[in-house]
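ugh ok fine here u go
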Amino acid sequence: QLSLFFSPDCRLSVVTMVADFQLKKSEKNRVLVTGGTGLVGCGIQEVLSTIKTSEDHVDFERCPPSLAPIDRAADHPTVVETEDEQWIFLSSKHADLRDKSATKELFEKIQPTHVLHLAARVGGLFRNMREKVEQMRENIIMNDNVMECCRERGVKKLVTCLSTCVFPAKVEYPITEEKLHDGPPHHSNEGYAYAKRIVDVLNRAYRDEYGCSFTSVVPTNVYGPNDNFNIADGHVIPGLLRKCFEAKKDKKDFIVWGSGKPLRQFIYSFDLGALMVWAVRHYDDEKPLILCGDEESEISIKSVAESIASSMEYSHGLQFDTSKSDGETKRTTSNKKLRSYLPRFKFTKFSDGIRDTAAWLDTYFDQSRL
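structure:
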């Protein structure tokens, strides 16, 4: 039997770390989450406080629209305690992972047994196109520092988060894990994509040379509450949500960049949070694992915009600015490998996730990352 989570009777508590990152001694596994105040980290924190168990699938309550924004200005990281674990959620405020000395000092203080590496220099299509050098260099440096510190400290497991943009631009669909290195990525994402591809190569190299248990997961496009709603540098759904919110407020047209024709698969941040928790606890294969819904969940950007407009009760004009790049026309990925582990995992309906995220943004717009 595969037991994913602790029993429903497990008592969870959220505590704040004392000054200077000092933690009480504990026999529990200590999971360090880099980038822990980002969209995915917020999803994991919520999942850890609402999880239930069954034999081989994850079940949890979806995020209520009233979920308060995470406090990114807090002086100390957040720690979520389960029966057998401490999950420590860090942000860039707590350590600059581009600095090897700062990263080593962080690992010495936290002394993690497991690491979930979410931190990255990220952005949407247009930032990836505009800042290829910075996207590549800074991510390579961060990843190298984290991986080497994991080796030096004898961390039991490292799980790094990749992105579906790492896959080849010209590939037979659906994309599977084995096709990762079958050709160059799309030129619009090449700086970021190659930095992430190197992680997969190093996972195998560290295992072969040092016996390290390093692996990676590859989620499709993530969305949900606590996202970055910056239009220029954010991802597609948060950018569209912000545009629609402002278009409704100003009684103007809702303008979507591009033709609206490209197809994408999306995953709600709390679904991904549950899968990330499972991966840290149970996924031991060095080869990457795609985390996505079923292939039929793929949806056009036009349909995404229409769903957002409906959720926000926007009824003005919807326009497409075809002078802007579409990026890749599609990136269909297969979750066959994921389903071999979790055949009954239930993904949140896209319309429900969009509705909750739109309601969250409407409630907390002034406190959001804009």
